[in-house]
TrEMBL record:
2 residues (Tyr-53 and Arg-56) present in a large hydrophobic pocket are probably involved in substrate specificity. They are important for desuccinylation activity, but dispensable for deacetylation activity. GO terms for cellular component: cytoplasm. It comes from Chryseobacterium ureilyticum. This is NAD-dependent protein deacylase. It is found in: Cytoplasm. The gene is cobB.
Length: 228
């Protein structure tokens, strides 16, 4: 089977009702991103950071995968599919996709703030005083701004091996994830589904569809299957 690698971002989850990471004013639900998504913010106000992600986690229980998620899962019948997602939700999993790499972490997991290898399932709130087995405070299992992206090497390998790379729902503004498309093979087919101009130079080889994730997948699905 041909290798189809998918790089997904906030746009696909937005259609399920999950707010995108940054609004046009650079704030995330009225918070400066550094206050809720950086080691500095964690050191400054742990309670604020925990409650911010607790709210995101509660919301995630209330939303469902959309048709774009479901169509991506269906592609596993035709391709060797690997999904690299910048999203911290589990909507790809719930839609039925089976090979997903969360390069920015997972909302339904927590970890020790002293040791990110101590990871736990976390479907409910994290509160001040909730401890990992090493005695350290639990924190969201999220890659914050300024932190290393430990799964980047795995993601790069997936992109390098791809026969087709489908970029969906991301404006490719957050690095280092945005740089992954530069690792594709010379004969890899690059397809981009995004309704907005990104200012990102895809080059002549990219097939760009200015559509939402759902509409783009409806238009693309049969064409992709014919390439399998």
């Amino acid at each position: 089977m041909k290798k189809l690698t998918i790089l997904s971002g906030a746009g696909i989850s937005a259609e399920s009702g999950i707010q995108t990471f940054r609004d046009g004013d650079g704030l995330w639900e009225n918070h400066n991103v550094t206050d809720v998504a950086s080691p500095e913010g964690w050191r400054k106000d742990r309670a604020l950071v925990l409650e911010f992600y607790n709210q995101r986690r509660r919301q995630l229980h209330e939303v469902q995968p959309n048709e774009a998620h479901q169509l991506l899962a269906e592609l596993e019948k035709h391709f060797d599919v690997q999904i690299i997602t910048q999203n911290i939700d589990d909507l790809h999993e719930r839609a039925g996709s089976t090979n997903i790499l969360h390069i920015h972490g997972e909302l339904f997991k927590s970890c020790s703030c002293n040791n990110k290898k101590l990871v736990y399932e976390q479907k409910g709130d994290i509160n001040i005083g909730d401890k990992a087995e090493d005695g350290a405070q639990l924190r969201p299992f999220i890659v914050w701004f300024g932190e290393d992206v430990p799964l980047l090497h795995d993601a790069r390998k997936m992109v390098q091996e791809a026969d087709i790379l489908l970029v969906i729902g991301t404006s490719l503004q957050v690095y280092p994830a945005a740089g992954l498309i530069h690792d594709i093979k010379d004969d890899c087919l690059l397809i981009v589904i995004n309704p907005n101009e990104t200012g990102f130079g895809y080059g002549q080889r990219a097939v760009v569809m200015k559509e939402t994730a759902t509409q783009g997948m409806k238009l693309l699905f049969d064409k992709l299957v014919n390439l399998a």
